[in-house]
Structures are given as structure tokens and as C-alpha cells.
Amino acid sequence: MNDLISVFFEMDRWVYGLKGALLGAFGALIIMLLVYLAAEFGRHKIRWQKILSRLDTAEMLQQGGMADDALQIYAELLRMDVVREKPEIYCRVKTGEGNCYLGMSRDRNKAENIIKAIEAYSAASKHASMDKHPDSFGMLYYNLAKAYISMSEFHEKGECISKAIRALRETLRVYKIATHPANYGISQIKLGEAHAVLAELYSSEDHLIKAVDALDEASKVYDIENYPAENAEIHFKTARLQMMLADFSKKHENLTKALNNYRMALTLYTPEKYPAMFGKAMLDSGTAYFLLSEMTGKDENIRLALAALNECLTVYPIETFPAEFAATHKKLAEIYLAGFGDDKDYLQKAISSFNEALRASTVEASPEEYASLKQGAGRAYRRLSELDHNEEFIHEAIAAYIEALRFKTPEEHPFDYAVIQHELGNLYVRVAKTKDWDKNMKLAESAYNEALKIYHSENFPEEHSEITEAVEKINRIYS
């Protein structure tokens, strides 16, 4: 019995010893595991530090204009599984890639690099977080919008600009006037410009209104006291949009608003400091005043229109601004013709302005504009001949119209072609009363018949009826 008890105690000591050994071994294993995990964590931390360091280096290279070197690092990082599996880091890498390609597109391979930039930004946008990284989110979509705007120069314009607008809307989810005033302002300017492009592309009043609204938002940031240049530019662009809006609706209201915005722009755009912009604003103002004169205050608004246009000529010499010089004289001539069509002195001024415009718009420089000016001069001479009864003016009108017809063809300019042929017919009939009856009556009939090729009865009943009656009268004379 004693032996059995002794054996039992011996086994108990052996079990306790085994337990102790196992516990010791387990403890050692735990310690080893902890040491391994600590080492692995250290290695992992060092690895991420290296990755982040490389990423920082790439971003500095890109910002320093060394896009090719930055792209090599981005490519290296994207080959790592750990980078591709980490959404925030992947987004940062792809954004950096996009920035590189966007920057490179300004100097070389524009189309190719813009497409690569958009691909990179689009990949980054799938992992961008507005909540965690609002600034990065806003700048990503802003740059994506810029890329689409650049792409619109060589790809489907409407589609690209629409995508740019959507990107800018995303940007403005982050950039608020209270928290990011500068970014809010420039984003609104870009948004206004984008809507203006679509407005012109699609003849859209809705896009014009949205463009004006966006620029109005931008003006809340770029006030005249702190940002005079930006403020003037915003008012100038807004005025031009309102001039376009006047063609759709609320003509008087929109023209008045346009003139107010031009006045605001002209507080900075003085003829001494900004002659080109001063001239543009005054030329547009002259046009706006003239359009207003057709609705109200005719004499006063025509006076203001002529004053504005004559101001233009002080900064638009023919030697340095030939196109603007011609445009100003053309507008002056049109106002003289429309506003004072029964005054011989003003008709002479109209002819003088058309001739001045023709000094700059030569047939070699712009055949179409040359023809338009010749047509205008022909109209002025024709009206002057009706007041003065001077046959010389009739011949001047005929010569001007014939010159215009060199470029005003029935295929490309059907309405102008028909108007000129109609008036030529009338002029030839008048000349026939004093000389070369047969010759001029035949010329008149030929001109009338050319006009009738355009003036069909269903679309132009009045003109068709008048010209048909004139042709029948000529035929009765010779029947």
C-alpha cells in the first residue's frame, strides 16, 4: 500500500513537472511569436514608410515638372499588390498619374496624354472619399474637369464639356464659399465657361442662364476691391452672355443688364491700361445700345451707340487691330443705314464707314466679310440714289452688288444672293429709263429670275409675288 502511494506521488510530481515544462514551452512560444509579430510589424511599418516615402517623392517630382521621373515611381508602386489593395493609396497614386499626364499634355502629345490623364483620374475617382479627404476629392474632380475641357478640342465637344460640368458639380460638393472661397470661385468660373460652350453649341437658353448664374456666384468671391482684374473679366463675360440671352427672351431686360455689366468691366478696362478689352466692351456696348434703340428711346440710344463705337476707334487703329477696326466701322455703317436711312449726310457716312472697313477686310484676307461689306455698301448707295436721284449712285450700287455676288453664291448664301439679285433687278430697271433700254431690261429680267430661284411662293410669298409681277411686266413690254 505504501508502495502504491509512493508511486502515485511520484506520478503526480512527474505530471506537475510535465505541466511546468509545457507551460514553459508555451510561454517561450508566445514570446517567440510576439517577437516575430513585433519584427514583422516593424518590417511592415518600414515597408509602408518606404512606400509612402516613394509616393511623396513622386508627388514632389511631379510638382517640380519632372513628370517622367514621377511616372516611373507611380508605375513601380502600382506593381505592388499591397498598393493596389489599399484604396486610399491606390487613389493617391492614380491621381498623381493623372496630374503627370495632364501637365505633360501642355507640352507634348496633347491628345494621348489627355486621354491617359482622364483614365487615371477616372480610376482614382472610384476610390476617392469626400468625407475622409475632401480637399483631395475636390481637386481630383477639378482636374478631371480640366482634362475633359482639353479633350473637347479634339474629341466630341458636347460630350466632353458635359462630362466636365458633371465633374465640376462634384468639385462643388466640397468647395463651398464659406470654407474654400478661392477654389469655389475658380470652379464657378470654369462651370460658367463650360455652360457657355454648350449654349453656343446647342443654341441653348438654359445653358446661357446656368452660365450667368455660375459667374454670378464667382463674383461673390472675386469682388472689385480685392480682385479687380477677375471681377472685370467676370462682368465682361456675363455681359456677353446676356447679349446672347437677349436673342432668346426678355430682350430689353437682358440688354440693359449687359450694358450694366459692361460699365462695371470698364471701371478697370480703361483705354490707357487695357485698350483691347476697352475696345471689345465698347464695341459690344454700341451694339447693345443700337438693339435697344429698336425698342425704346431711339434717338438717345443711337446717339449712345455711335459714341461708344467712335470710342472704339480711338484704341483700334487699322495697323494693329485690323479686324476690330473693320468690325467697328461695319457696325457704324449699319447704324447709319438703319437709323438714318432717309438722311443723305448719314448715308454718305455709312458709305464712308463701309469703305473704311474694306481697307482692313480685303478680299484676300476674308472673302466672305469682304462680300458682306460690299453688299452693305451697295444697299447704302441704292438708298442714296433714291434720295438724290444721281445716276452715279445707281452705278456704284450695281458695281458693289456685282462684286458681292463673286462670293455670295446661291448654294452657300441663298438669302443674301436672292436679296442682291432682287435689288439688282430694280436698279437695272431704273437705269433702263435713261439709257440702253433693251440691255438693262434684259439684265433686270435675268436678275429677277435668279432671285426667284430662291424666293419660292410657299416660303417667300410677298417677294415671290412682287418679283413675278415685275418679270411679267417686262415680258408684256416685249410681247
In summary, what is this structure?
The chain is mainly alpha-helical and 479 residues long. 79% of the residues lie in helices and 0% in strands.
Polypeptide structure, described:
The protein contains 20 helices and no strands. Helices cover 79% and strands 0% of the residues. Among the domains are: 81 residues, Serine Threonine Protein Phosphatase 5, Tetratricopeptide repeat, CATH 1.25.40; 93 residues, no CATH class; 69 residues.
DSSP helix count?
Answer: 20
- Largest β sheet strand count, sense and barrel closure: none
Amount of beta strand: under 5%
Rg from Cα: 38 Å
Poorly predicted spans: 36-42
Helix and strand pattern? HHHHHHHHHHHHHHHHHHHH
The N- and C-terminal alpha carbons lie at a distance of: 162 Å
Structural class: mainly alpha
Shape: elongated
Approximately how much helix is present in the residues?
over 70%
DSSP E strands, number: 0
The pLDDT mean sits at 90
Which keywords apply here?
mainly alpha; elongated; Serine Threonine Protein Phosphatase 5, Tetratricopeptide repeat; 479 residues; 0% strand; single chain
